[in-house]
Amino acid sequence: QVQLVESGGGVVQPGRSLRLSCAASGFTFSSYSMHWVRQAPGKGLEWVAVILNDGSNQYYADSMKGRFTISRDNSRKTLYLQMNSLRAEDTAVYYCARDSRGYSWGQGTLVTVSS
Amino acid sequence: NFMLTQPHSVSESPGETVTISCTRSSGSIASNSVQWYQQRPGSAPTTMIYENDQRPSGVPYRFSGSIDSSSNSASLTISGLKTEDEADYYCQSYDSTKPHVIFGGGTKLTVL
Q1: Out of A9, A29, A59, A85, which could bridge A77 as a Cys pair, Cβ 3.0 to 4.6 Å?
Q2: What is the pLDDT of residues A35-92, one digit of tens each?
Q3: Closest approach of A85 to chain B, Cα-based (Å)
Q4: What backbone phi and psi angles, to 5 degrees, belong to A88?
Q5: What's the pLDDT tens digit per position in B63-88?
């Protein structure tokens, strides 16, 4: 059974950094591309980034390119999202997701950017 | 990037059938698979349809998906509506030119 558990969210001041983690279990982590998707309060889903199964390539939504970095450690079965220069509009629940026959989703972690 | 446009809200009575549309703004809807997600308040989304018309195990037969090239749109149809179907529904596809993932804006389904 696929399990994805995000962590690392919290309250952070504008301009600061935060790193999210996603611990995976129940499947062969190194065989799958992994994504981050976010959802601002009361808003829809917004795709953030994807990393290929071997970490060889990463792709980002235009609005996050240059500030966010997706990475993974297949030996630890963990996905990461490094977020720099955070803005108020980055406030959202951040989900990690495995893309296979539709997404399998974690429960999300809330990031609040506020002074 | 193309956009996926969904109605903001739909409502229907229990036992009836509702269809939620998802229209692709450019490029063919058949070029990339379409997925549908259900999200109840306070919960993470769950997959209801993948690859246009495939149902994951555990998803009731009442949920079905299709694509229509003539209208360049995908549809999620829910028959025999139940109050528990009340949720937000999102369509999702891929932009293989970048590659990026595209979500529709979501549709709030009210079952009253």
Answers
A1: A29
A2: 999 999 999 999 999 999 999 999 999 988 899 999 999 999 999 999 999 999 999 9
A3: 23
A4: -55, -35
A5: 999 999 999 999 999 999 999 999 99
Nearest by CB to residue A95, choosing from B44, B49, B90, is B44
| Contact across the interface for B101 and A35, Cβ inside 8 Å | yes
For residue A110, list its beta bridge partners: A93
Give yes or no for a contact between B88 and B44, defined as CB atoms under 8 angstroms apart.
Answer: no
- Structure token digits, residue B19: 């269809």
- Contact, B20 vs B7, CB < 8 A? yes
Closest residue in chain A to residue B45, using alpha carbons only: A105
Cα Rg of chain B (Å, integer):
13
Q: How does B63-100 read in b/e, with b if 16+ C-beta sit within 10 Å?
A: bbbebeeeebbbbbebeebeeebbbbbbbbbbbeeeeb
End-to-end CA distance of chain B, in Å? 36
